[in-house]
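Notes, p. 3: input format for complexes.
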Amino acid sequence: MALFLKDKNIININKNAKKALADKTLQANLKKATAEAVFKRNQAAAVSETFESSRDIAIAAREASISMLRKLSDEFVENCVKNNIKCFVFDDYESANAKITDLIKERGADFIVKSKSMLTEEIELNRHLKLNGIEAIETDLGEFIVSLAGEKPSHLTAPALHKSRREVARLFSEKLDMPYSEDPAQLSYFARRYLRDKFMSARVGLTGANFAVSDSGLIAVIENEANARLAINLPQTHIAVFGVEKIIRNLNDLPHFLNLLSKSATGQLLNAYTSIIGPPAEGKERFFIIVTKRRFEIAADPVFKEALRCIRCGACQNICPVFQRLSGHGYEFCYGGPIGTVLAPFFIGYQKCAELIDASTLCGFCKSICPMKINLPALILQHRFHYGADKKIKKPLFKHLKKLFSYLHSLIMSNNVLSRVIQPFARLYFKITAAVFGRNYIPRWSVFSKRDFIGMAPKTFMESYFTKNKKKSREKEGDKNGN
Amino acid sequence: MEINKGEKLKNGSEKLFDKFRERLALNGATALICANRSDIAAHIADIAAREKKDGGRPVFHLSAHLASSSASSIETAIGSIEGAYITKSILDDNGIYIVPASALLIEDGALAVDSALCAHEETLFGDICVLIADGAEIYNNIIDFFAAISAGKSSIKAHNITIIAGPSKTADIEKQIVTGMHGPKKLYCMVINY
Ligand code: SF4
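Output follows (677 residues plus iron/sulfur cluster):
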């Protein structure tokens, strides 16, 4: 078995799943957090008068913006300039990171206050800043917790979803000398006091953007904690970093996205704070860093452009039975869950995603909950087709064996003679594996005990049918003779 | 109920107010209606009593842009509370910040604050934030609000908008909601309706 899994270039979902399933605390945290998130989302959607209509309008708006992404991007930059905002567009991560580093260094800052941004995870900004002697202080509580633990966020909107209060208490007392307490309120207020000093002295604040409005050169930032508002408004310099796909056409489109995001992400009618950010206040400065990496390519793909509709709400993660057990970390990619599985091959390549694209039951829950109605299972399936069909992709040994197994299986099952010949051997095989392993073992198939092969019936349907019929006719015959 | 975009809350709008109160409560905040000056005084005294911890003196910060009619009523109300005082410091992380709200979004249980009339710090600092909706524009929801803004029918400019729906909060530790993560712990909205 291990032989088939040794390829280090592959995200090892099987190994990660085993590890995650063995961690009882993680399983309990995930179960509680994801179930509650789905429940709240459903409640908020049910209360809202406009949720369903906003879905359709937002989908149409996003389709339109994806189809003219380059044009909108240029228009957005032009309007930002009019708003006295300096915009930089980069196609690669290195240049984006280098520009941000320069901007911070030029302002004489050795730390920044930062609010949650998945794009900065994608470009690995914090690591880059650290290499350049700049500390990125995460101010969203969840991000603050995972950064203290030296981990990465495990969910799009709830980065510390995998951590229990006990783990956070231990972390705060070890790393911040906080008197041990497992009370979430005390832990949160301790973090508030600790971070408030940083906000007051920071020269640069860095945030993401949930949406960028092309026709007015504005961005929208939504949050609940108010840390993004502090990072935007207190320091002299504000930098917002986001992907080009966040650009939408106009202010009329915007509220529909806000409507969907708040309900789908956190189950709220609206998030506590929605800030529309435009020209900097007098004496202050603002920069927008836009990353285009692979986005235009995806936008031009007739099938996968649908993935760019994503508003990063995390609802598909909450409802996914795989995510609910694996957690975001198991995906080894900054975007976990179904949407992560769809995006990953574009950003890290098919070869690395050989197991990842298989790690879905295609149950369709994600498609039904997605506010943007993205057909995630169909896109995952498309990746599987593409992976299988593309001869240029170097496939690991287990994929070849799987293909061989499938081929032999269909060959045998479609041939009456062959299948009859093989049956006694197959029965014998399962008899042996049942005696040795205690179950009907098939390599790869049996990694998860819950998915054991059900084995083979002692007789085929035809065999039992004819045996029964023979018995019946013999009985009839006997009756006749008895007469 | 259909509302004309940007319409002000009028007497007889009880149903509308009830819906707003119910939705704001879902967002973890409290809506209070003031039908006269004595209502303002009573609500301010009540909020001050909740804030007054360990016998301390309640501290108020009043935004410079409050509508003059409500500002004078609020100042009078504060004046009659024992030990209460008004500070001008806006970076003080204690006390009750009273600031103007420019629009009510009924179905969303939310308020829009215009940064041209209210410094961001005024809704970020302090333990309690009280938003005063005096002559505020009123919309069914955020969709109508943005439609009015893009059509130039609202007095608020897009880049000055902050929509507030509840106090600062987090649920990052085991999904337990804690208010006051980085901003105010409590949010009140006083709708002046006379
Ligand atoms: S794919 Fe849909 S459900 Fe998943 S994060 Fe994106 S918008 Fe949300």
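The CA atoms of residues 61 and 253 of chain A lie 6 Å apart.
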